Amino acid sequence: MTISDGAASAGSRELAGLSTGALREFRDRERARYEAIKARATPYNLARGKPATDQVALADQLLTAVSTPEQCWAEDGNDCRNYYGSPQGLIEARRLFAPMLGAPPEQVLVANNSSLALMHDVIVYALLTGARDGAVPWRDQRPIRFLCPSPGYDRHFQLCEQYGIEMIPVSLTGAGPDMEEVERLAADPQVKGMWCVPKYSNPTAETYSSETVARLARMGAADDFRLFWDNAYAVHHLTDTPDQLDNVLEACAAAGNPDRAIVFGSTSKITFAQAGLGMLATSPANMRWFVSRQSTRTIGPDKLNQMRHVQVLRNDAGIATHMERHRRLLEPKFAAVQEVFEARLGGTGVAVWTQPRGGYFVSLDVLDHCAERVVALAKAAGIEVVAAGRTFPLGRDPRDRNIRIAPSFPPADEVRAAVDAFATCVLVAATEHLLADRGVNA
Amino acid sequence: MTISDGAASAGSRELAGLSTGALREFRDRERARYEAIKARATPYNLARGKPATDQVALADQLLTAVSTPEQCWAEDGNDCRNYYGSPQGLIEARRLFAPMLGAPPEQVLVANNSSLALMHDVIVYALLTGARDGAVPWRDQRPIRFLCPSPGYDRHFQLCEQYGIEMIPVSLTGAGPDMEEVERLAADPQVKGMWCVPKYSNPTAETYSSETVARLARMGAADDFRLFWDNAYAVHHLTDTPDQLDNVLEACAAAGNPDRAIVFGSTSKITFAQAGLGMLATSPANMRWFVSRQSTRTIGPDKLNQMRHVQVLRNDAGIATHMERHRRLLEPKFAAVQEVFEARLGGTGVAVWTQPRGGYFVSLDVLDHCAERVVALAKAAGIEVVAAGRTFPLGRDPRDRNIRIAPSFPPADEVRAAVDAFATCVLVAATEHLLADRGVNA
Fold it and tell me: Would the pTM count as exceeding 0.80?
């Protein structure tokens, strides 16, 4: 991850350095721009990390990949149109995703369309039956706490919220969470879990360093503490030199904590979002633990959709080739965000943003106490972004400064226009805030 | 449901009425047959309620039903290849299954491939967050008890077992559970749920009478008591005069208990088993309750597979036509079971069995204390049936007499041979038992 405030570019454009008069003038100009945007009332959406239509279309072969009865038969002689087999999913599918997940096929489970659902199920199994066979259910050890590197993925935090799990925000460093903080906090036996999006993180786009992974693997923690390793962007590169992430399962095994990590993956942003496959990989003991509970919940996943994915993606190289096509569609959009932010916000000192090398998001920090105002201005002008604070546990950003920008869905020219309009909102809010600090209002 | 012991057919063939010498002779003849079967060692499977390959093939249109990008667009303008919409599923799919579930589309949720998974999720949401908004979580009201009409579906009971829910077996009458017993037991505020397979029940094939439904709807029970109404065989008729089941949602609403019932359904035995759709219907309040929790678990179900089902089944009449085709394939198999049991066990007084008018099972009661022996004999001869006792909570049939026969998967001639061989096992076990009662052994 690289963080930019565009300071390198311009001469001094720092807003805080302007005289009150000049600042007021700047504000009035941006306000005028803002009113013009509002008058145009063009709706823009930068809210959802959602593939564009031309991206999902890259996987249209899935629609015809298994179109005859003969193609429904798995290599083990079973019919994917009928009940059978293990809740771990087709061996063909487990083999396909094993390299992406960093585990042998026996330690891989391929499920239905949602990796979030798998994370949910791990949590409820741990709450109700204990995180390993014979362990005390988490629910009988309350309070239960999770470490939450923040800003992070709102849906992770909502899972905790739903089940009364206390969330402890942990700051991020650009190479993963602050490990001093994590090691100190994980020593608390009530801490049972930690959310990690270890590669091209949502939303900061950072990738955990080798040191971060090693320290997470070996740090002191409860025996039933689990790393929820949501490697959602494992193969979602935006450069020729992909970030490298260490294998957490191997690191945990080497550190003598083989059951610490559960790796999650998904094809939601590889093939069809919501009609793809969710999956997990973990230690043999954790796999037995999960499968025994999951087999009570369901006879097994939809194996036909797994077969379709096997036919279309074929192998790890097939996944890489497919992801190259995504990259070509995504790159211009991410480039547009950088160009516009650089042009409009560079050197102003009122915003820093990430320059992602992969994943789906740009993370923008505005001046403290300004994010809610920016989002409200944007909303009133028809630009949708996720609510300010949503990237923090309980929706509370203590500094009210982080905003997640998702440029994947709209066409590139629309992204450019939307981000330009959004930059205006940032500048209006920032100048208002700076003027208010000087006792000048509206 | 009709129960037969074939007594009407033969003169007196009752084994208990035979002299010890004649009984021994009978036993030796059946033992000789059994040894011959064992020697042939032909493997038979009567264990799984699994559609045959020609049955799943009836839905092969699903493989090509949505084969172009244009067909992926839902009537609300959304793309089924991408993230969107409500966790309730496509409105097209909810409309399709609304009549089968007996609820308007707004009260229907269509999910992924497993209705069992939906039942599981209702249970964990109730355990962890309470069965209605603001209610005390079941887990904080322990002990929690479920009423379990038995014999019943083993996977229902396993869900209770996994989460430490006490199970209270309730006897069945041929028109549903013994309502005197149920009403008495449901008055216990610790009783929070009841498993019901109300039509062509698994395994007894009975359909709950209007009186049963009405009494379940109006009986006194805890406010957070729920009927788990697993209407898995709603449209799975084997006669021209389908059983009629009253609408439990309407009955509960009329009785002032609108949130009491949750109706589950599935296409597992309509289209593709394990690659079909699971669904539920319930009151508006329960739907809001479920959706709010389910939206935390997952962004939503695979809507492409829902679209495929809409294209192939079209409407309620389309489902009925499709089910007629299943019936034609299943009828000869169920007829074979009746013929063979009648011929081999009729009038012997050592077995009674059901004559199902729908569903997937024949329920056989052998002499008390004989079911385990019968199943062991069958297993040794290569005939697989579910373990004796599996149709009861915790796998314990107090009288050790019930065995579930599933004739759907093998071809009809194989069913005939398998059931014939199985009848031999029944007769060997019964004669051994009767002789042991007279002090005669091996």
Answer: yes
